[in-house]
Q: What sequence folds into this?
């Protein structure tokens, strides 16, 4: 249990730890008033049952004299109001404490989730190649809330209830040590025995729930993300059958943990019922009569009103923390894996690279993916002149995309260097270089927002420059379509993933997005490979219009896409095996000639 508290404390920032200190100060104040309520009931009941006690008890006699009241009845009423005042104050503090505790814990869902996303975004692109995005999403959107609501909040409330219980027991020890010790021993002992029995099953339930929930999220993401393929392939039942076992297991393990949490309450009712009989027999024996024991009985009864629920909650908090320890361990491991990473990758560069005047040059670039047995690039050297249109072609796995990822600054070469106008690209200036690049992937991600918001992707609504949006749309051959064919023009919603647009329209939005920041270099990574010939021709017309304004790099499977390039690099097995204009490669390179002869003319 101590290690669990250390782990929970470790996920808090230094500021959050300071806030938690003042929260616990408030908890102690609330516990003091709860204990005061129990302590104040004894003199009140004593005077109420026997007014002569006011003169017989030294402390009551002094209080009576100090009050200046003329009658014992008035003093008794005042004591009643004092007791009620302390009691109601304790209730207000209890409500305030609960609000503070819940607010503190729920805000940690926000802060820890934000820290995780910040940590993920701070990772290099290479890091994402070995991660499942469904697990990352599950951690932020599900497991953080699970840990906070089922571990952190119970831990806070466990400490709060323990402080209250300790304060009440101290008061009871002062009133009647024998009864207080024996009652506490029976109640705490019963809960300890129950916990020792259920602690291991609880951990197993929690571990299985954690793993099943990860699988549930993964299958859900695959199903909804690939819903088109699911529908076309008639795979609905298959995906449902994959989802249901993990969903059932998640629910089933949560049921088991919840039942284990509730069962002790029924057992403790029998313990408490037997304890009440024992307490009554003890009081009659110790005080001679029930009337003589009435003040003590009242104090213990009032304390039990708070103690029993508090002990039950303490047990539930402990079992909740135990059953969710696997989720906590997973979250801690994730946070620690991100601690050593600087957030410099999140900072927007203040400037961009100077306008490209000469060339981009890759010299002897080699790169190997993590855990790969073979290098993906083997001594690649490429020169891309300013305002040139360059094509990269080759079969799948030849190294085209990896080469472009190096140009984009997403992958750092294992050896070799990249120069832009003679300036070496390093981790210190790669962010400025990336600001000079517009990138169009094969599959354009479109958010369920307006055309304008998708062109200015990633910007807040108040940061979007409408003139830049229109300029980019014109360059992408998209402006006329938007203004004449869409009912709300640039404010038209595109639907989830752009379902209301054709493939060509989505690609042209991708080109407009890449041009929004007016980059010097435009890179199209097989951006037309999924389009039919006619649509590809329309998209390439938009690219052709940019040829004199931008440096363009095209990756393509279809050679028709690169026919008009100033220079084409043919890649195979991570190496450049041919270079030249289209006609030159057809004439001089057998591999390229075979590719060209095997491709139907557009």
A:
């Amino acid at each position: 249990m101590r290690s669990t508290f250390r782990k929970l404390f470790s996920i808090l920032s230094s500021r959050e730890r300071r806030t938690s200190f003042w929260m616990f100060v408030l908890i102690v104040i609330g516990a003091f008033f709860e204990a005061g309520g129990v302590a104040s009931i004894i003199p009140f009941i004593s005077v109420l049952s026997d007014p002569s006690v006011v003169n017989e008890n030294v402390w009551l006699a002094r209080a009576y004299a100090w009050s200046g009241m003329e009658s014992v009845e008035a003093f008794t009423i005042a004591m009643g109001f004092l007791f009620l005042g302390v009691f109601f104050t304790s209730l207000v503090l209890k409500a305030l404490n609960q609000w503070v505790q819940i607010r503190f814990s729920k805000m940690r869902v926000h802060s820890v989730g934000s820290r995780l996303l910040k940590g993920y975004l701070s990772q290099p692109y290479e890091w994402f190649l070995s991660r499942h995005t469904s697990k990352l999403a599950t951690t932020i959107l599900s497991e953080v809330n699970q840990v906070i609501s089922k571990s952190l909040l119970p831990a806070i409330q466990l400490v709060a209830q323990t402080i209250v219980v300790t304060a009440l027991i101290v008061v009871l020890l002062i009133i009647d040590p024998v009864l207080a010790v024996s009652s506490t021993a029976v109640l705490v002992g019963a809960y300890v025995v129950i916990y020792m029995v259920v602690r291991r099953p609880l951990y197993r339930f929690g571990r299985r729930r954690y793993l099943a929930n990860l699988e549930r999220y993964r299958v859900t993401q695959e199903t909804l993300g690939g819903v088109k393929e699911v529908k076309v392939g008639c795979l609905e039942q298959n995906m449902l059958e994959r989802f249901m076992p993990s969903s059932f297991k998640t629910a089933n393990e949560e049921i088991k943990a919840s039942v284990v949490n509730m069962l002790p309450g029924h057992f403790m009712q029998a313990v408490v019922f037997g304890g009440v009989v024992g307490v009554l027999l003890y009081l009659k024996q110790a005080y001679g009569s029930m009337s003589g024991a009435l003040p003590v009985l009242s104090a213990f009864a009032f304390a039990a009103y708070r103690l029993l629920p508090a002990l039950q909650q303490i047990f539930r908090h402990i079992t909740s923390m135990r059953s969710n320890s696997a989720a906590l361990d997973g979250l801690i491991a994730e946070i620690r894996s991100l601690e050593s990473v600087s957030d410099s990758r999140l900072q927007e560069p203040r400037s961009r690279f100077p306008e490209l005047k000469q060339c981009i040059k890759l010299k002897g670039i080699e790169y190997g993916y993590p855990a790969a047995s073979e290098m993906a690039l083997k001594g690649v050297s490429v020169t891309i002149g300013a305002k040139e249109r360059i094509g990269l072609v080759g079969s799948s796995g030849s190294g085209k995309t990896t080469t472009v990822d190096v140009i984009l600054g997403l992958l750092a070469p294992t050896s070799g260097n990249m120069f832009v106008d003679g300036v070496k690209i390093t981790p210190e200036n790669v962010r400025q270089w990336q600001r000079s690049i517009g990138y169009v992937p094969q599959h354009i991600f479109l958010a369920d927002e307006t055309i304008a918001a998708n062109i200015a992707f990633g910007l807040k609504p108040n940061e979007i420059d409408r003139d830049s949006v229109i300029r980019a749309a014109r360059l992408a051959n998209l402006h006329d379509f938007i203004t004449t064919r869409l009912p709300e023009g640039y404010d038209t919603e595109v639907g989830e993933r752009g379902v209301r647009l054709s493939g060509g329209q989505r690609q042209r939005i991708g080109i407009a997005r890449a041009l929004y920041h007016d980059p010097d270099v435009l890179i199209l990574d097989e951006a037309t490979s999924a389009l039919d010939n006619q649509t590809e021709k329309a998209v390439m017309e938009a690219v052709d219009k940019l040829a004199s304004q931008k440096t363009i790099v095209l990756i393509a499977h279809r050679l028709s896409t690169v026919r008009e390039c100033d220079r084409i690099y043919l890649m195979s097995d991570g190496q450049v095996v041919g270079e030249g204009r289209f006609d030159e490669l057809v004439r001089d390179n057998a591999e390229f000639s075979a590719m060209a002869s095997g491709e139907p003319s557009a």
Notes: Residues 2-344 form a domain with the ABC transporter transmembrane region fold fold (CATH 1.20.1560.10).
